[in-house]
Amino acid sequence: MLSASLKSHPAPVPTHIAIIMDGNGRWAKKRLLPRAAGHRKGADAVRKAVKGCIEHGISYLTLFAFSSENWKRPADEIDDLMGLLRLYIRQELDQLRKNGVKVRFIGDLSPFSDDIRSLISDAEAETAANNRLVLSIALNYGSHAEIARAARSLAQDAADGILRPSDITEEVFAAKLHTYGLPDPDLLIRTSGEKRLSNFLLWQSAYTELLFLDTLWPDFNRKALASAIHEFQSRERRFGARS
Ligand code: IPE
Ligand code: IPE
Ligand code: MG
């Protein structure tokens, strides 16, 4: 009886999954291919992750595509990544729109070229009315910069007399972050075996379940997503309270 009732109430899937898509370079190196080949294959894994999230009824997917620290890479690799970003938006937009995906970009987009910025704003505008899956792509994103920017903006509001310092609550602060409007991630996955957050969603992941996988991002597929969701469903979240 008990097991039957448990079966009829399976643990909920995460509402919001965030992914640090790491390991493209190592995937290519293993195959004696240029790093760009790893990044290309990584874009295929993005398609699989988006499709998989729709199939599992995930409402929010946030992908770390380019960090504020990735500018330290050689110019040719940055060029390859920018080229791939253009290609991804151009090739995928139609499918994303048809699949009910709302696309949003988070991070400081000001250093990107005009053509990339207009592709981004078109993609956001053309999918704005969708609500099946909110896909947030983090570009030139870093939590420290995001938090400092929020503090600067609140300080300016206080200096302008719009806000009293005592009005600054967690909610008011969070509303100044790039992720405004997104719920905090329930599950954060990092591929490639590295066990660090690399400046991703530090404020937002206070109570997020973390999952570090050895899989290299280009090998991530529907099966890997299904097993990550399954692992999430086996965790007990307490948020500081007692079980
Ligand atoms: C992740 O793969 C993609 C980006 C950071 C843009 P990497 O390029 O970091 O791959 P590894 O970590 O060198 O294997
Ligand atoms: C994190 O991966 C950034 C992205 C996946 C976009 P990195 O490869 O840049 O992280 P580190 O340098 O190993 O910490
Ligand atoms: Mg890496």
Percent of residues in beta strands? 5-15%
Radius of gyration, in Å, reads 19 Å
End-to-end distance, in Å? 23 Å
Which strand order do you get reading across the main beta sheet? 3-4-2-1-5-6
CATH class: Alpha Beta
* Sheet/helix structural class: alpha/beta
Describe the structure.
The chain has helices spanning 2-8, 24-30, 35-56, 75-98, 114-127, 143-159, 170-174, 222-234, and strands at 16-20, 60-67, 101-106, 133-141, 187-190, 209-212. 45% of the residues lie in helices and 15% in strands. It has a 6-stranded parallel beta sheet with strand order 3-4-2-1-5-6, with helices on both faces. The longest helix has 24 residues, at 75-98. The chain contains 8 helices and 6 strands. Residues 1-5 have low confidence and may be disordered. It starts with a helix and ends in a 9-residue tail after the last helix. The structure holds 3-methylbut-3-enyl trihydrogen diphosphate (IPE) (2 copies) and magnesium ion (MG). One 3-methylbut-3-enyl trihydrogen diphosphate (IPE) binds at residues 21-26, 66, 70, 81, 192.
Explain briefly what this protein structure is.
The protein has helices at residues 2-8, 24-30, 35-56, 75-98, 114-127, 143-159, 170-174, 222-234, and strands spanning 16-20, 60-67, 101-106, 133-141, 187-190, 209-212. With 243 residues, the protein is α/β, with parallel strands linked by helices.
